[in-house]
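Workshop exercise sheet. Pairs work together: one partner reads the sequence aloud, the other fills in the structure field after running the prediction. Swap roles for the next sheet.
Pair: D.N. / O.F.
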Amino acid sequence: MVVTKYLNKETAREYALRQITDNIINLELAPGSSVSGKELALELGISRTPVSEALQEISRSHLVNIYPQRGCIISKIDFDTIDEAVFLRRVLEKAVAEELCDTIKEAELSELEKNIELQEFYLSKNDIKKMFELDNEFHHSLFKMSHKEQIYNLMESMQGHFDRIRALSLNSVKDTRIIMDHRAIVNALRTKDKVLTGEFVMKHLSRYKLDAEDIVRKYPEYFTTGK
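Structure field:
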């Protein structure tokens, strides 16, 4: 497990929640593997209570299964859960991006373009973790610029299974399609073309389907079923 430092004013429970979730999403805690609250607490250097509270919250996102007296199992990646999460995300993000066509400012377009430039840089360095962070930041920015950040936070609670296959896709495919999609979205926003903006968002959020078969073949033990 990769352990990082506390964030400013972060409580022990918040720290445990962030650390465990990040390690699940980044596949450091592999789907199907078992973990214990005691071992996690030792690795994080905190007591078991905030770890137990964090695991209970994570279980509500269906990323862990908790078995009393037996510990926890990191949930395997489930395509039905992914499809449901992506359906919600496509509906919300498409609407947000289309609305943003009416309000986006030049400074905000520049911010998105700088993000894409950083994506290109870290892809050239084969830094997949940083690429994943920048990809999330790009999409989060669309909601922030539309003043819909609470919607983004609510949506995020359902994205764990989708985020894991995104991480696997970045590790397995390592191509420039994600960056090309982001550029297409920004260009459509710049021209205030709502139809194209919506189409590019929908296409981008469906990319995982193109890589799903190869990913399942490479990591069959990570999934509940084939695709």
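Discussion prompt: The longest strand covers residues 64-67. What would you look at next?
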